[in-house]
Write a structure and sequence with these properties.
Blueprint: E1 36-41, E2 45-50, H1 51-57, E3 65-68, E4 89-90, E5 93-94, E6 98-103, E7 107-112, E8 117-122, E9 129-135, E10 144-146, E11 154-156, E12 158-165, E13 189-195, E14 203-212, E15 218-222, E16 225-230, E17 243-252, E18 258-265, E19 274-285, E20 292-295, E21 305-310, E22 317-320, E23 328-330, E24 333-335, E25 338-343, E26 352-355, E27 364-369, E28 382-386, H2 391-405, E29 409-412, H3 414-421, H4 428-441, E30 451-455, H5 467-470, E31 518-522, H6 527-542, E32 552-557, H7 569-584, E33 589-594, H8 608-620, E34 624-628, E35 635-636, E36 642-643, H9 644-648, E37 657-661, H10 675-681, E38 689-693, H11 699-714, H12 724-734, E39 743-746, E40 758-765, E41 768-769, E42 775-779, E43 782-790, E44 802-809, E45 813-816, E46 830-833, E47 837-840, E48 843-846, E49 849-855, E50 865-866, E51 868-875, E52 881-886, E53 889-894, E54 906-912, E55 922-923, E56 928-934, E57 951-954, E58 961-963, E59 968-970, E60 977-983, E61 990-999, E62 1005-1014, E63 1022-1028, E64 1031-1032, E65 1036-1042, E66 1048-1056, E67 1062-1071, E68 1078-1082, ...
Parallel strand pairs: 10-23, 11-21, 28-29, 28-30, 30-31, 32-33, 32-34, 34-37, 37-38, 40-52, 42-53, 55-62, 64-72
Antiparallel strand pairs: 1-9, 1-27, 2-6, 3-4, 3-9, 5-6, 7-8, 12-19, 13-18, 14-17, 14-19, 15-16, 15-18, 20-26, 21-25, 22-23, 22-26, 24-25, 35-36, 38-39, 40-41, 40-43, 43-49, 44-47, 44-48, 44-51, 45-46, 48-49, 50-53, 51-52, 54-56, 56-60, 57-58, 57-61, 59-60, 61-62, 63-65, 65-68, 66-67, 66-71, ...
Helix pairs in contact: 2-6, 3-4, 7-11, 11-12
GO molecular function: cysteine-type peptidase activity
InterPro entries: Caspase-like_dom_sf, Gingipain, Gingipain_N_sf
Keywords: Signal
């Protein structure tokens, strides 16, 4: 493919204003009326349409038949130059019963004056070029005949030509637009024979492009002569998969019909060793060689020249095709078999073709095209691009935005865009040209286009050339824009590209261009997924899932270690984000899940408490989930705190917005569906949208992106919340780092995060105004809080009637991390948090005013430091929501008027799974525990005093002891009533005794003892099997978590490809350790051959004597060596 050409342009004045208007666009497309048939060409050439061909298409009058379009050359990504709008009529040559036209295929050739080379560029989106045929009411365009010029000073009998060898077979990075050819990993030498009749012995040029991740010597010999020898340095960056050797050398051709080329590599076993292409540039005798022969002469530039062509006859034609839309027939003179014509002096290089009309082939007929007229569309707020199978669902979503958001929305198919903006040829730049039409036609920001939704998945291999994609049905998918960089960590898929619409940015690098649209993508492949995602988004827009969960945010951070070099960096960055929200938006409750604050299971390498904590937060509901740390396409972090399997099993109904500052969590253009995609594609759970990464990312560059996303999500823009698309747009336009290109929005860009729109404020506490000094919340003191619901202007919302949910927190504490993975002398990371809860409740709001009463527990910090109160309210009629906070109080002291209470909480009901449970009853291995409670003073869930937590203890085992403070919630109705619901982790079969302890706020306790029997088959229970590392390069260890410690076990591990073929199997017998996972290690080879990189399924099976197998299966990734 084309080598990246760097051109430095020094411009005295910017003329952008001349282009940023509507004059460059047709008011209507020529396709809006008449009959149109699309035709296809495979390469640059002259094509024939006979009267018979045209009759089959439905056209009868040859004189009125016209050809429109400009073929398959890739569109210029620089919009500062003049480009063709709509589809122009092409000048054709007309014979008695046929016509000829010049068609452009998908490969563009151009001459580089700086390199003195002919350079080729393949269209990365299409293998063909396209044109349209119609029958006009008037005569169609015919080529003008250019008179032969007089006064020629140069006679041209040879021409400059080029040949190319390029096979596009593989992508070594699954990224970028470059595809590479023959492998030299094991085959070190390859010979090629190139047919070049009429070659002269003038000096030519040889060009070689070759890639390798090794430092072997690369050679190119032409006709036995060594021309090129070189090597590349081995990349130090593990994410740079190879480097390119690009060399040009002069060569002297031998006269003959063929050229023999040998490409060699010196060393076996190196990774990613491939020929990209080689080109040969030479001079040839100017003759008629085939049905048509293209020719040009560098020496003719600037000279009045006479071209003399050998091998012609009376039917031979010559066309000047320098301008592909306006070719001309050259006036020629025939002398025997010698055909000549003359041209005046011209500085430009002109392209000609000599033609034998009788031997010209016809183009391929694609089919009739329905009338369309995108050029006549009025200004639109939002465009949704969807394939025909998806338009019904896309229209449902469009109508929702029209109705609920008052947006003008249009659903268009990619084919219709190609037809008017890229001559019918698939080209991602056509999407951008289409959006730019609306951008240039805007009269103000009010009618500027705002959103683009790409309603379909995409692939890095837009043309289905690689073996993995050849058989994939991509009919529902959309094109992706891939960078030319295809080898390093800065190779990206960039949806932002479609929003680079400002002419002032045309010469800027991608990361410095202004993003003019909010852009999102639905990575859907089936109609079922389309339907589910539209249902999901519309449900979110309808905002029926109200609740105090919308006050909750979670910031999760990976740990670090001496080996990965990150130490506490991930936690520091996450804590800065959390600190910003706590400081600037204290109405939200921030939950901090920093790995190193929790005990690590060193055997499995996991954080069980972080994992269970995240699962509970997601189940209870989060408005936003933010993650900083390591990750990949199948999991967040090496510790597998969240895996793709978990995501696919999500059933929670509160949908957060996800922000994942990690490596390629949402690599949507890969063949395999990524974990991030599954977050969105979970039909009723997961997330509503993701600000996420599609490629390798780095911690430090990630932080300003993450930081800006958070700020733009929560800060109002001119008094209103930003949509998700506006958040990403504002974020990208604030930064100039190249790494921002690796982030994209998965989801609907016109949707807003479901923030409560109204505010709330506390006016009095125990009748005392809160505007003065801090109020004390004393232990055992009864507190009555009153307040108001306010609109965005600060006025009381008098028609707001519903429910208020307050959460009162004790003063913040300093948490010191455990240094699980850092064993050096550096200080442990510390952060502040509000882990202890004083009160969670609910009460009523009437006419915009609310009040609630609670008693401060005896177990408080007594710190005399500031506490925190968060408020949420919902109008039960309108669904309008409000939120607020209050922190003008300190926690400390003891009330002098505390009520006397010596009775513990009443346990009104206690059962497993359902209310039919009776003491001693049988249950499954993971029963669901429920207890209904009442206490006149209130249940203690502070967690600030040892021994006063709500606990479930099974079999008097500390391992089976569970703190249930965070699982308790008050019930509406009678004061003091609440419920605790807890999914008990898997238990051993057999009879069990459990104790449930609960305390009130005066530290009176109640205990209930009950028994139950877990019934299961004789087979052991395999809780889970985890592969570490989950992304393996040298070795993987399988950890089997089971319920048979100290037992003789038979263990089997099987590895399969995604098609279900078994590739490796291992069986052994052994004794499991006490409280230890059974482990099996594997060196990633089978039969002595190393496994190929990819995603694999592994299945573990365990059994004891005379038992059935218990099995579990998961996925993991094997990287290249």
């Amino acid at each position: 493919m084309k080598r990246i050409l760097c051109v430095l342009l020094f411009v005295f004045g910017l003329l952008t204003s001349a282009w940023a208007d509507s004059s460059r666009y047709a008011s209507e497309s020529v396709l809006n009326s008449g009959k149109w048939v699309k035709i296809q060409v495979a390469e640059d050439g002259i094509y024939k349409l006979t009267a018979a061909d045209l009759k089959k298409m439905g056209f009868s009058n040859l004189d009125k038949v016209a050809v429109y379009g400009y073929g398959g050359w890739p569109l210029d990504e620089d919009f500062s130059t003049t480009y063709i709008d709509d589809v122009p009529e092409v000048a054709v040559w007309r014979g008695a019963d046929y016509l000829l036209f010049y068609g452009k295929g998908p490969r563009k050739w151009e001459y580089s004056s700086s390199d003195k080379s002919f350079i080729h560029t393949n269209n990365p989106y299409s293998n063909y070029g396209y044109y349209f045929v119609t029958e006009k009411e008037t005569t169609g365009r015919t080529m003008e005949k250019a008179a032969s010029a007089a006064g020629a000073t140069l006679q041209v009998t040879t021409f400059d030509d080029y040949v190319l060898h390029e096979e596009e077979l593989v992508s070594v990075n699954s990224s970028g637009r470059e595809l590479y050819g023959e492998s030299f990993t094991s085959t070190l030498s390859r010979d090629f024979t190139i047919s070049v009749p009429g070659i002269t012995n003038d000096e030519g040029k040889a060009t070689l492009s070759f890639i390798s991740r090794g430092n072997g010597t690369i050679t190119m010999n032409v006709d036995g002569n060594a021309l090129i020898s070189g090597s590349v340095s081995v990349p130090s960056d593990e994410y740079e998969v190879a480097r390119e050797l690009y060399r040009e050398r002069a060569w002297m051709a031998d006269k003959g019909e063929t050229v023999k080329v040998n490409i060699g590599y010196s060393t076996t076993g190196h990774k990613n060793v491939h020929l990209n292409y080689f080109r040969l540039q030479m001079k040839r005798q100017l003759k008629v060689y085939d049905n048509y022969t293209f020719f040009r002469s560098l020496s003719a530039r600037g000279n009045a020249s006479r071209f003399v062509i050998q091998g012609a006859d009376a039917s031979t034609l010559v066309f000047d095709v320098t301008d592909g839309v306006n070719p001309q027939q050259m006036e020629t003179s025939l002398n025997g078999t010698e055909l000549s014509f003359s041209i005046p002096a011209s500085a430009s290089l002109r392209e000609f073709v000599v033609v034998k009309p009788s031997q010209i082939k016809a183009p391929v007929t694609v089919g009739e095209v329905a009338n369309q007229n995108l050029h006549a569309l009025p200004q639109q707020d939002m465009i949704i691009i969807a394939q025909p199978n998806f338009t019904t669902q896309a229209e449902r979503l469009a109508e929702a935005h029209r109705t609920k958001d008052n947006l003008t929305v249009r659903v268009v198919t990619p084919e219709s865009i190609y037809n008017e903006f890229s001559s019918g040829t698939p080209d991602a730049t056509a999407y951008r040209r289409f959006m730019k039409m609306f951008y240039d036609r805007k009269t103000s920001e009010a009618d500027a286009p705002k959103y683009l939704l790409l309603f379909g998945d995409g692939s890095f291999d837009n043309r289905k050339l690689t073996s993995a994609w050849k058989s994939v049905d991509m009919s529902n998918m959309l094109l992706t824009y891939q960078t030319e960089n295809s080898l390093s960590s800065q190779s990206y898929v960039i949806d932002d590209y479609f929003g680079f619409l400002d002419d002032a940015d045309n010469k800027k690098s991608l990361q410095n261009k202004k993003l003019c649209l909010g852009i999102g993508r639905f990575p859907i492949r089936t109609v079922e997924q389309a339907t589910q995602m539209v249902d999901k988004v519309i449900s979110y827009m309808e905002n029926k899932n109200t609740g105090s969960w919308k006050n909750n945010l979670c910031f999760m951070a990976d740990d670090g270690s001496n080996t990965d070099g990150f130490m506490t960096e991930h936690m520091e960055f996450a804590d800065q984000l959390a600190g910003y929200v706590e400081s600037e938006h204290p109405e939200f409750l921030v939950n901090k899940l920093y790995y190193d604050a929790y005990k690590k299971d060193m055997t499995a390498g996991t954080y069980p408490d972080v994992r269970s904590g995240l699962q509970k937060l997601l189940k209870d509901g989060l408005l936003l989930f933010n993650y900083t740390g390591h990750g990949g396409t199948t999991a967040l972090s090496d510790e597998k705190v969240l895996t793709q399997t978990d995501i696919n099993q999500f059933t929670y109904t509160h949908l957060p917005v996800w922000v994942t500052a990690t490596c390629d969590f949402t690599r949507f253009d890969d063949l395999n569906t990524s974990a991030g995609e599954d977050v969105f594609l979970n039909k009723s759970s997961g997330g509503i949208a993701l600000f996420t990464t599609v490629r390798v990312a780095y911690s430090r560059p990630n932080f300003p992106i993450n930081d800006n996303v958070i700020r733009n999500l929560f800060e109002r823009n001119n008094g209103r919340r930003r949509t998700l698309g506006e958040v990403m747009q504002a974020t990208k336009n604030t930064l100039s780092s190249v790494y921002k290109l690796g982030f994209c929005l998965i989801g609907d860009p016109a949707v807003k995060m479901a923030y409560p729109e109204f505010g709330m404020k506390v006016t009095t506490v125990n009748g005392q105004s809160v505007d003065g000094n801090s109020i004390s919340f004393k232990a055992l003191e009864k507190i009555t809080v009153e307040g108001e619901v306010l609109d965005v202007s600060g006025q009381l919302v008098t028609d707001f009637t519903g429910i208020v949910n307050p959460t009162v927190k004790d003063s913040k504490v300093t948490v010191t991390c455990l240094k699980n993975s850092n064993k050096d002398d550096s200080p442990a990371f510390t952060f502040t948090d509000y882990p202890n809860t004083i009160f969670i409740g609910n009460d009523s709001v009437r006419n915009g005013k609310f009040s609630f009463t609670f008693t401060v527990p005896k177990d408080i910090s007594y710190s005399n430091l500031q506490g925190k109160m968060n408020l949420y309210a919902v109008d039960t009629e309108s669904g309008n929501e409000a939120q607020g906070n209050f922190d003008n109080f300190i926690v400390g002291g003891t009330s002098d008027t505390a009520e006397t209470d010596t009775i513990g909480p009443e346990i009104r009901a206690l059962y497993l799974n359902d209310t039919t449970f009776v003491d001693g009853g049988q249950v499954n291995t993971t029963p669901y525990f429920v207890a209904e409670l009442w206490d006149k003073s209130g249940v203690n869930i502070t967690g600030s005093s040892v021994g006063h937590d709500m606990m479930l203890v099974i079999d008097e085992s500390t391992v089976l002891s569970y703190n249930l403070n965070s699982y308790y919630e008050l019930l509406p109705g009678e004061d003091g009533t609440g419920i605790v619901k807890f999914p008990i982790p898997a238990l051993e079969p057999g009879k069990h005794t459990a104790e449930f302890w609960v305390w009130d706020i005066l530290n009176n306790s109640t205990v209930r003892t009950f028994t139950f029997e877990v019934v299961e088959g004789l087979k052991p229970f395999l809780f889970d099997v985890i592969a570490t590392p989950g992304i393996a390069r040298e070795q993987v260890t399988f950890h089997l978590m089971h319920n048979r410690p100290e037992s003789r076990m038979r263990v089997g591990i099987m590895v399969y490809d995604l098609a279900g073929r078994q590739l490796w199997k291992h069986e052994e017998s052994g004794t499991s350790g006490l409280f230890e996972n059974y482990t099996v290690s594997w060196d990633l080879t089978s039969g002595g051959v190393r496994m190929r990189p990819g995603v694999y399924i592994y299945r573990a099976a365990i059994s004891t004597d005379n038992s059935k197998d218990a099995t579990k299966a998961r996925k993991f990734i094997i990287l290249g060596e």
